[in-house]
Design brief:
heterodimer; A: Glutaconate Coenzyme A-transferase; seven-stranded mixed sheet; 6 helices; 14 strands; globular; B: 301 residues; 2 domains; eight-stranded mixed sheet; three-stranded antiparallel sheet
């Protein structure tokens, strides 16, 4: 198919795919592209997903980003207290954009440097410790680099992962489920041996070597490594409807095309 | 027979923001309600900023109040899940203070903060949870302990300690002189837990009336009982620059001006003098006046 699409649109479809076959859960996407991904999933392959209006209500009709209708119909309530209850029940999948991610899937939103005196302080742990030990988590990264995919552990562990050194006997980590990492270069998952990170698909025109070179730890290359699926015409139409102000064009530097020029 | 008017000692809980601050002492642990840029008791915070109160432990789902109190040197210790204004993700005054290690930072998960307040409200020493295990919550809070389930499962859990507050500061849409409160904004956040975890709770409200006379529908938006309310303060636009839906949205321009102050040398002193100023009435006028503030749109996503 010759339809042009942007990298942002490719990533929205890849985010949507992360919510496939998750069951009847709350799909949360933090940021424009992950949120459009959750909405797209709800309107295409995964109608069982629950969505919020981004404020305090559940909606069955996704709210377009940046163009909220005057009185969107609500189907239920989702205050932060209710979000916490959903988190603890395990019935949620959130895609967030961490500062750092390590080979164990541990994530950091607190800052860079030491905990006691960070070089760069950011938001804080937010809900990462609770999210990551209770339900499915995915990450969204717009600048695939060794600064994000660090060599050792992340500087401050908010979201937990699969590093055995971090767990003691008797701790129940059976609900830790780091699922996908969607970046500007590729989609990765944790389906290698012992949850090692694997490149799942490469975006059109990107090589495995480029991904490996910009990652601080060794990645698994599956034998059948293919390309990240391009958006269909239907998906592009839905995305345009969900983002009438084209906020997606402002999420990645220079709004690159989905297929790199050769 | 008519209604007997409710009256008696302590049942007229109206006070001024300055009277609230006079009851707060150095060294106290103060919980601040709301969430990020939403429904923060900013008029009470400004009254603290105008006072010489210092050495506070602040507990919050942090918005601009945290950066302001840090910039003013009021905070010894901060217990928080995050500090953010959402539309402006990071607060530069918070960042500066954090990067200078000028206060004791106790970062915890958002849910753990609720758990700590809930434990205090239930008057138990801790509540068990998996949240925090495997993360740096334990490193950030070296006094946190683990507990082993006494049941067959033997599971090891975090014993989230109670966060008892000396005082809570909250903002409501409306209150009455008895201490009844109404919060009409879409999300109550965790104000009820702050109220119940505190030895004293002071509520600023956009409007204070003699007695709330609510419909059954409205009465569902009463979040906590008046026995937990020590004082009510009428503060029109008291949450500004944060939102107090449905009456006013957050003031992005005002928050940007606050952020910009961090770039200038001596920026906080100038902001404190020019924006916080000497009185709340002047603050509201300088912020644009009641008509302009009433017109601030609700946040949209």
């Amino acid at each position: 198919m010759a339809t042009d699409f942007s990298l942002a649109e490719l990533l929205i479809v890849a985010c949507a795919d992360a919510f496939r076959d998750n069951g009847e859960i709350l799909a949360s996407g933090i940021g424009v592209i992950p949120r459009l991904g959750a909405s797209l999933a709800r309107l295409t392959h995964s109608p069982e997903l629950m969505l919020t209006d981004g404020e305090a209500y559940l909606v069955e009709e996704p709210i377009p980003v940046g163009a909220r209708p005057a009185s969107p119909p609500m189907s239920g309530y989702m205050s932060y207290a209710r979000v916490f209850d959903i988190v603890w029940s395990g019935k949620r999948h959130v895609i967030i954009g961490p500062l750092q991610i390590d080979r164990w899937g541990q994530t950091n939103l607190s800052g860079v440097g030491s905990y006691d005196k960070p070089k760069v302080a950011m938001l804080g742990m937010r809900g990462l410790p609770g999210n990551s030990i209770n339900h499915i988590n995915s990450a969204f990264v717009t600048n695939h680099s060794k600064r994000v995919f660090v060599e050792g552990e992340v500087d401050i562990i908010g979201g937990v992962g699969y590093n055995p050194a971090r767990w003691a006997d008797g701790m129940n980590r059976s609900s830790v489920d780091n699922r996908r990492i969607i970046t500007n270069l590729c989609v990765m998952d944790f389906e290698g041996p012992d949850h090692r990170i694997r490149v799942r698909s490469l975006h059109p025109g990107v090589s495995f070597e480029e991904v490996q070179e910009t990652t601080g730890f060794p990645l698994i290359r599956p034998a059948d490594l293919g390309a990240t699926p391009a958006p269909s015409a239907e998906e592009l139409e839905i995305i345009a409807r969900l983002d009438p102000k084209n906020l997606r064009s402002r999420q990645l530097k220079d709004n690159p095309p989905g297929r790199r020029a050769a | 027979m008519g209604f007997r008017p409710v009256s008696g000692p302590g049942l007229d809980k109206r006070m001024t923001a300055e009277e609230v601050v006079a009851r707060l002492k150095p060294g106290m642990t103060i919980g601040i309600g709301g969430w990020g840029p939403r429904r923060k008791p900013m008029a009470l915070v400004r009254a603290i900023l105008r006072s010489d109160l210092t050495d506070l432990t602040v507990v919050a789902y942090g918005g601009p109040e945290c950066g302001m109190l840090l910039a003013a040197g009021k905070v010894r210790k901060l217990i928080y899940g995050f500090v953010s204004m959402d539309v402006i993700p990071t607060d530069p005054f918070f960042r500066k203070a954090r990067q200078a290690a000028s206060f004791e930072a106790r970062e915890i998960d958002e849910g753990l903060l609720q758990w700590g307040l809930r434990a205090a409200a239930m008057r138990v020493p801790f509540l068990p949870t998996r949240t925090g295990l495997g993360s740096d919550v334990l490193k950030a809070n070296p006094d946190f302990r683990l507990v082993t389930s006494p049941y067959e499962d033997g599971e090891v859990l975090l014993a989230m300690p109670a966060i008892r507050l000396d005082a809570a500061l909250l903002h409501a849409t409306r209150a009455d002189r008895l201490g009844n409160t109404l919060v009409l904004s879409p999300d109550p956040f965790f104000d009820e837990h702050f109220a119940r975890a505190a030895d004293a709770c002071y509520v600023s409200a956009d409007e204070v009336v003699d007695r709330l006379d609510l419909s059954p529908q409205e009465a569902r938006y009463n979040l906590y009982e008046r026995c937990f309310v020590t004082g009510v303060v009428e503060t029109p636009f008291g949450a500004h620059p944060t939102a107090s839906a449905p009456h006013y949205g957050w003031d992005v321009a005002a928050m940007k001006a606050y952020v910009a102050a961090a770039d200038a040398e001596g920026g906080w002193s100038a902001y404190a003098a020019d924006v916080i100023g000497g009185s709340e009435a002047d603050y509201v006028e300088r912020a644009g006046g009641p008509a302009a503030l009433s017109a601030l749109p609700m946040p949209a996503f």
